From TrEMBL:
Subcellular location as annotated: Cytoplasm
Keywords assigned by UniProt, alphabetized: Cytoplasm, Kinase, Magnesium, Metal-binding, Phosphotransferase system, Pyruvate, Sugar transport, Transferase, Transport
Name used for this protein in its record: Phosphoenolpyruvate-protein phosphotransferase
Residue numbers annotated as active site: C254 (proton donor)
Keyword Aminoacyl-tRNA synthetase: no
GO MF terms, alphabetically ordered: kinase activity; metal ion binding; phosphoenolpyruvate-protein phosphotransferase activity
Principal location: cytoplasm
Length: 325
């Protein structure tokens, strides 16, 4: 079976009835990039840039970041890399950055909110990513967006940095795409509006579950509520996929859900065509998708979206897809 899985390495992903798909890897370390290269993956669908910040004792200078991003791009040999801008705050705070104590860190000063409050740090990261765009296929992804103003403010900074690079005569790709992580219920509900303001959407199901269910994703005692099978979560995912498609913007899903063998068939049935999963799940996801037929999975997704509880949905998925586990 393992050698059968290996045979998917480097091949385009495709459903049983010939729908072309993408299976990307999520990276939060150099080792992850290496694993993605090893399975000849289609690219890095989520590069968690905070690891560059969290593994150092100092704020990484622009040149230091540029070097890391360029390294990843060269390793991917022209395949796309989606750089998510700094997603710190909440549970992830580098020792050298002071942050105010917060009663509700998950609802506080994190991700894009932090970047927009420290434009000096944000600009240096954007500059590093844009400079790296001269060496590969780069996209920029904005985490924890909950309002359109945040997208506009971030894009204004990006445009400003582009202007600076032009003035300096530094090489970069002026058509670098900018996407939004849909990981708050707010973003999912207005994903039609967000899709008009950016180039692509990436659903962050890990946080989307946390914020939709109003349950701390790290609280073990409440984990019974933290379920990717929740009807409300799946409906928000469906809304986002539909809104992206209606606006003609690609939609990907980069949370754990994308690599869950019980849920990837349902996501495919909902119309998802791009999956970003942990490196160790890339080949299995490609294999699962290769066995699915569009109409059958659409019918399954319709049935699932009409079930009332996470338990019922989980049972349905186990009955239909346990051969993939
Ligand atoms: C997510 O929230 O689903 C996600 C992909 O990002 P992270 O797990 O890094 O918050
Ligand atoms: Mg997230």
């Amino acid at each position: 079976f393992l050698s059968r899985l290996r045979s998917f390495a480097g091949r385009p992903a495709c459903s049983a009835d010939g729908v072309l798909l993408k299976v990307y890897g999520n990276a939060a370390s150099d080792a992850d990039i290496k694993s993605i290269v090893e399975v000849d993956g289609h690219g890095v669908g989520l590069y968690r840039t905070e690891y560059i910040y969290l593994t150092r004792a100092h704020l990484p200078a622009e040149g230091e970041q540029f070097w890391e991003y360029k390294k990843a791009l060269l390793a991917m040999k022209g395949r796309p890399v989606v750089f998510r801008t700094l997603d710190i705050g909440g549970d992830k705070i580098p020792s050298y950055l002071s942050m105010p104590e917060e009663k509700n860190p998950a609802l506080g000063h994190r991700a894009i909110r932090y970047s927009l409050s420290r434009v000096d740090i944000f600009r240096s990261q954007i500059k590093a990513i844009l400079r790296a765009s001269a060496y590969g296929d780069v996209s920029i992804l904005l985490p924890l967006i909950s309002a359109i103003d945040e997208v506009r403010s971030a894009k204004a900074v990006i445009d400003d940095v582009k202007e600076e690079l032009r003035r300096e005569g530094t090489a970069f790709n002026p058509r670098t795409k900018v996407g939004v992580v849909v990981e708050t219920p707010s973003a999912a509900v207005i994903s039609d509006l967000i899709a008009c303001e950016c180039d692509f959407l990436s659903i962050g199901s890990n946080d989307l579950i946390q914020y939709t269910m109003a349950v701390d994703r790290l609280a073990a005692a409440l984990s019974y509520l933290y379920s990717p099978f929740s009807p409300s979560v799946l409906r928000l995912v469906q809304t986002t996929i539909k809104n992206g498609a209606a606006a003609g913007k690609p939609v990907s899903l980069c949370g754990e859900m994308a690599g869950d063998p019980l849920l990837s068939p349902i996501l495919f049935g909902m119309g998802l065509r791009s999956f970003s999963v942990n490196p160790s799940e890339m080949l299995r996801t490609q294999w699962i998708l290769s066995l699915l037929k569009t109409e059958e999975m659409r019918a399954c997704a319709d049935e699932v979206l009409n079930l009332a509880t996470a338990g019922e949905i989980h049972r349905y998925c186990r009955e239909h897809f346990s051969r993939f586990v």
